Each structure stands twice: as C-alpha cells, then as structure tokens.
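Many introductory courses stop at the sequence. We go one step further.
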Amino acid sequence: MKKVGRRFKPIVLCFVVLVFLSGVSSAQLRRAFLPKRPLIEFLKGDVTVVSNSVTLYNEFRSRLPEGAQTAFLSFSELDKHISELINAQKHIVFIIDWTKETFPIEHRELLPYDIRLIRDMDVVIAGDVKVIERKPYARVLISAPSHNSALEAIQKLCELEGREITDLKMQRVWQVPLLVVVTNADEETISIFGETIKADFVWVTIDKLPKVERLLMTETEVYILTGEQPIPSTLKARLPFPIDVLRQNQSVLVRSSKGGNYYRILFYSPNNRFLKHLVSLYERVEDIPSEPRLMLHLDMSHVKKLLVFPFAEAPAIKLYVMQFGEQVVGAIGKAGIVDELVIAKPEMFDDVISWEAYRSGNIPTDVARQLCEKYNCDALIAGHIAGVDAISVISQGLTSSPSPAPDRRIWRVKTERTQSVSIFVEARLFDGRTGRLIWSSRFEGKGVSKQTIHTSMPIESHEPPPIQPEQVERQVLDTSLYRTASSNAIAQLIKALRGEMIWAPRPRVTPVVTIAKPVEVTQKEGQVGAVEEKFVYIDMGEREGVRVGDEFVVLRRVRFQTARGERTIEEPVGIIRITEVKEDMSKAVIVELEEGMSIKPQDIVKLRIPQEVKPKAIKEEKPEAAKEAKPKAIEEEKPTPIKEEEVEGQKEPEGKGEND
C-alpha cells in the first residue's frame, strides 16, 4: 500500500499543477464532474407560470419534477402582481401562444428575451437565472406562433440537459412553416382550430388583411368565415369555392393546391355554431378534402322522440368489439339531443332477417314511416360497422458495434411490429313523418398504433446476418386497438349529430335506455396512478367498493393566485369506465375527454353519480305539469372549458341538470 501511495502522489501532484497552469477555476473543475440531467428538473420549489393558455399551463405543469408547487397567472393579472414578480424568490415561466391573447408589451422587462425581436414564424425558448439572497431562481420563456408549436417547444425544453441551474441561461430560436388564417369568426372558433390542427399558424381579421399580404403569397392560406359577419367581395374572389351559390343552411370545406405543399383552404358556415364543428374535423392539412365537402344543416328541433336501432356489428370483429350496438345507443342518449329514446328490439319484428337488415340501416321508406307512427317517434336512426382496416407490419433492421476481434463486428437484428386498426361506421337518419332517408354519413375511428420491438441476441461474425423483407398482415389480435377504434368512431358519430344539425335546446341527461345496476350514492374519490394509451389505472379497488361498469369523472386541481389569495379549482378532464377491479386498484377505459385535454398521473377521480338517483325528480303528484314543463334553453355544444381570460377569481362552472 505504501508503494501504491508513493506512486499515486506524483500523479495527483501533476494533475494539480496542470489545472493551476491552465487557469481552470475550482468551480469549473467541480462542474466538470457533475452529471448531466434534464434542465426542467432544476425547476423545483415554487413555480409561477404566466400564460394565456390554461391547456399549455396544465401540459407544462405535468412535466415538472416532484415537489414543484405551481401557481397560474393570466396576462390580465400581470398589472396586479408586477411588483412581486420583479424580485420574486421563485421560478417564473412565461408561456405565450400568439394565436391567443398577446403579451402586454409594457411588461417585457419581466421576460428573459426581447419579444420585439420575435417574428411571426419564430419559436423561442430562452432563460435567465437571478441570484436573490444567495439562491438562484430561473426565468424561462416559451414563445410559439401556435398551440401546436408551443407543445413542441415544451417537449424540446424537457429534452434539453445541463449540469446545474445556470445552464438555463440560454436562447434557442427556430422557425416553423406557417398557415396564414384570415377570419371574421370569434376567438373561441380560432382556439378550437388551433387545438385541433397539427400545424402552426398566425391569424388576422379581415380588416387587417394587408398586414399578411406578403405571407399569403408564400404560405398556405386558410379562410375561416361565418355568414353572420359581412364578407367583402374582394375577399370572396380569393376563395377556392364560390360561397354565394350555397344555401342559407349549408357549409363547405375544401382545399385547393397553390403548387407544391402549399394550399388555399376554406372553412365556411352560416353561423359560428356550425363553424366551430367544421374547424374541429381534421387534424392534418393533407386530410382536408380536395373536392368540396358540402354539409347541409338539418332543422331537427321538432324531434323529441327518437327511435334507435342498436347498430349492427361486423361478424369478423365481433369477438374484439363487444356490444357495439348498445354502446351506440348509450352514446346517443348521453348526447342529450332528444327528450326520449325508444330502443328497437328483435321482438318487434316477425323474423330475424328483417331485424338484421333494419338495424344495419337498410330500411324501406314505408317501413320507417310505419315504425315511427307505431311508436310515436319523430325520427329513426340505424347503422352498422361498414368495414375494418387492421394492419400489422413486421420489419427488420440491423445494428452493429465493434468486436474485440479486428476483422469482426457484433451484430443485432431488431424486429419491429407496428399494429393499427381503423373501424368505419355508417349511420342513416330517417324522417318519421315521411319515412325518407334525410341524412347519412360514414365515420372512421382510428385506434392508437402500437409498436413492439424485439432485439435478437448478439451475433459476432465477418458478414451481417440476413434479414427478412417487410411483411404486411391483414390481421391484428390486440383487442384494445379494436375497442379504441370503435369508441373513436362512436365519438365521431355523436360529434356529427350534435355539430351538423339543429336540435331543440335541452339539458343533457343520461337516458333510461337500459336497466342500470343500483349505485351506492357516496362520493368516492381517488387518484390516477398511470395512463397507458386509452387505459387508466386508479388507486381504488374492491376495498373501496369499486365495481366493473362504474364511471368516474377525472378532474385536475389547478391552483392560481389572485388579489385575494391563492385559489384552487377542479378542472374537468374526462370520464373513465371501470373494466377490471382488483383489491387495491382498478383498470378503466377512457370514455370521454374534454377538448384539448389528456389524463395525467395524479389527476383526481370521483364517482360519477347517474342522473336517475339525483334528488330533483319529477313530483309524482303533478305528472301533467311536469310533462308540460319545458326545460331551460341551454346553448351548449360541449362542456365549456376554462376561459383563460377569466382565471382570476374563478368560480366553479354551474352544473346543468334536468331541472335547472
């Protein structure tokens, strides 16, 4: 040991001398030995997020490390908190989506980057670190021209690595191709478009069109127009479709080419209500039809009683998609578009052949009219699974690394299997008075693609091992992909029924279409433990009384600061249904999601109490008065999300029940 020590001392001495001669400081030397880790992990403790988007705030908050305590401030609240933000002993993150409310230019000194230098196409990630009372605090800016690019910027920030918090002193600027949106619609419509389309865009109102003339010449043009506001004739001449030929209750959607990957796109509807539905239909520009898609908005306000046939399943996938027809019936009932549903049953018909044909939508005019007359219904809806596209692709690739032998390499064969399922559903709607077909449509429900990768044992050889050519199979055995695809197809159907037609305003109710199991009316509450594609795992099971079929509302607790102190609200995220129950946990499938939301670990889950057991029931002693009572009109297309401009002093949204 003494000999080893004597040999080691000169080495250490030489190292110290080299460090001294090179001028490396002790701090630099210490930093060199620190491991790299994601920069976002340095944002621990109190973090205030200043943003014009609650959705982006929630997305960023879900990426923060454990122990981070977040608070939300909207741009409208900056004036009240400007003094405390200047020297705040906390981390401050600014997230700006330029398609929404603009950042107040008079408060630009708060930002670690001069926003006057940001151009229309720029995505910016910038940071600075201030030391207050010997503790470092970071200020980070994420600026993007759209919701989609803001999400990508958040992801990029999470991927950046550093050795210490001072590495947040950085600037990253890059440009993205833009869509140029010209509109006369309201800001809510633009927000829906921004959260749907997977592209970056800037938008202007018609009166500010000259400001983007240069961009319109070189980029893709998107016109989002409503007939409720005037449209100049000069603008009509630029559109890819002559909107003057449309009827008063018609909408149109079309994409025409400008050459290359640049297009001229039109979304036009007679009012904002239908326009909101139109802009939410497509996620990719390339999916927008190149031939005009005309949409006739039927007036269904007279329909109070609807005859529903459980949609027919496809025999080939009956094992993978269970009770598809019942799922459609339940979804139509939950949509709350009519007062009463009548469910068609096989006993209504003389033979099984007629039943199967009718539930598929092949109903003769006279039969549809007679059925509606017999059961006193105003309309009839039926349909079926029209097709299934199940693809499994198996491909192989090679990776290699050096071998100890100079003339050999170590090879590994990587086998990748990609599975995807799409289900196509056709629906038909018949008028109860005439029995005629008045509406039909086809919907595609896409399942989430699933990838599995297998890497072979290493092989040491001179030559690479042979690999198999790509194989395509028209069969997928994963039942979860079929369930996801069918749920998405049903969601598309309900979205079209509610978005394309005019129904009488009525509160949303859960219809009594099937006999439900008795539910114990207790407020069960738990937490999301993990999320896997369309499945959610919660920390409640048999011990808490959870049963298969129970539905839970998923909520996210959002904290924000106001002049009166800190407030907490529960923001709705979605609805899940229990599919498997164990002693201390349960597995659930995602039934419904709020617009732009996704379920995250640590979200709160609460038992969803069915409408049938709510205390405000119709009084038995006054049945006729209750029957004649008209529900309060509610202009509601979907659950109203939290408005960013109303975050201050926010109240819980008022519930809408059958007697509101």
